[in-house]
From TrEMBL:
<dbReference type="Pfam" id="PF09826">
    <property type="entry name" value="Beta_propel"/>
</dbReference>
<protein>
    <recommendedName>
        <fullName>Beta propeller domain-containing protein</fullName>
    </recommendedName>
</protein>
<dbReference type="InterPro" id="IPR019198">
    <property type="entry name" value="Beta_propeller_containing"/>
</dbReference>
<dbReference type="InterPro" id="IPR014441">
    <property type="entry name" value="UCP006425_b-propeller"/>
</dbReference>
Amino acid sequence: MRRRILLCAVAALALAGCTERPPTKILESPVTVPAAKLGLVSFESCDRLLTELRAATRRSISPYGLSGAVPANASIAGSRADAGMAAPATAYSGTNVHEVGADEPDIIKTDGRRIVTVDRGVLRVIDPATRTQTGQLELGTPADGQLLLAGDHALVLSSSYPQLYGRMASFRPSGGDADLILVDLSGPPRIISRYQGIGRVVDARQTGNIARVVLSSTPRIDFPSAATDTDDLLRDNRQAVTAAPLDAWLPSWQVTTGTSVSSGRLDCGAVSRPQSFSGAGMLTVLTFDVTAPALTDGDPVAVVSDGDIVYGTPSSLYVANDQQWRLNAMTGAGDLSTEIFQFALTSAGKPVLTASGNVPGTLLNQYSMSEWDGRLRVATTTTASSSSSAVRVLSATGGKLVQTGVVDGLGKGERIYSVRFLGSRGYVVTFRQTDPLYSLDLSDPAAPRVTGELKITGYSAHLQQVGDDLLVGVGQEASTRGVRQGLQVSLFDVADPARPSRLDQRVLADAVSNAEFDPHALLWWPATKLLVVPVKGAFDGALAFRVDAGGLKAAGRINGYVNRSLVIGDDLWTLGENGMNVAALSTLEPIGSVAF
């Protein structure tokens, strides 16, 4: 669940000392990345799968092992531990998600009848009517988690990371052990079922009761060489790959329900691959009915690839791999390309891998992708000589995502800081010293084009739709030289494609917002046109605005750390570090609290 983090903002909010662009990693020497379209190929047998996995992994090995590789002896630790849907009594807000009908995991959920939070391995249930905590459950996982909610069940998603040793200890693993926990909320919360499997949780999407969970795993291979010369290390590592069994690549799992324990391993027949691949990782997509009486093996489907960004609609799931593993390899990387895999979703069946493709450059986050009218739009930045960005339109044809149109040359010398696609329109913010907000017409998939541009100082890190022709931008104000100065909230009028304009602006010096990095932290409540923006730095709390075409009207200030905000009936709930506070939705006056 990758989030973009501005390191300089975290360090004591020394905004004036931040660099003019996001930090980039130093590359040692170029590696050519193929930009050819990717087609899906099936493996003829397990023997063929193993041969190709070994060969591809040897090509990506370095003297220091595989970035993100996990020791072969790291294992899954065992753990032991009836849904209904009642209509909510009041209106309530959901998680601020990318697409309607495709819910996203978060640290807090509500169905109007209850609030469920998960933090540091503890799940809590709060009754909004009585404003009391009615349940608490130790989940037995050391990692932070997120959750999905359906009926009287919650599905908690987390990943633990095995301890690395020797020369691999300096690498942060991209693999790990997924820990998925199904919790019954009909009474005191209790664990019904637990899925533990190899692979970190990348992200998940839920439509109705059905959740699709994306895992990413890396080969679990020991590299025991004691050599000190890099040539000898590389030789020994390649030999270790050649000797590794197929199980080193194929993820396994264990499901515990009560005293019943079952286990399994990914079948070769469930694995697909693009025509060319790194061999360094495997993506697995699991399917669960959150309202079911127990978890299953998830009916897994897999593709040989890494992956770090998930975008979903009710009918499609996309996983993107921008090949950032090349940045961690000792050989470095030249300009990168991004692999994209498309899965078709049925109402409850397992996803079907239908197409794959490759686009130049890297994606910012899931908002860089959008499906509309049966096609995928993708916004990327390339950095081969001088940064520039583009939006491409892709169509699924014969198992390939084929480019049908492109508009490029956006923000030359700059990088993308935010993207929002709205139907046939698109909006892209790039930044180095100033902030061009580009307005795009994407109605013709063969000829997307820029229709307008607005240059202002600073940038928007997230664009939130607050009306048919209104966007709110949450980001940073900056000097004309690009030095960040503080939190900026902007209101844009995009009714005229040729002349986007800024209607209003609010700046809070020496401050940042979690919403810059995680849109789940932002609350937009259309019923009362309320926007709640969490703030950290100048003060800890949140700023609230009433938003319409007339501007950003200050609605109040909420004091105390605010991580999330949600609406239930006439109450505004805010989640802090040690509990939740309640305010009147109309006045924002405090009316209660629940301590954890």
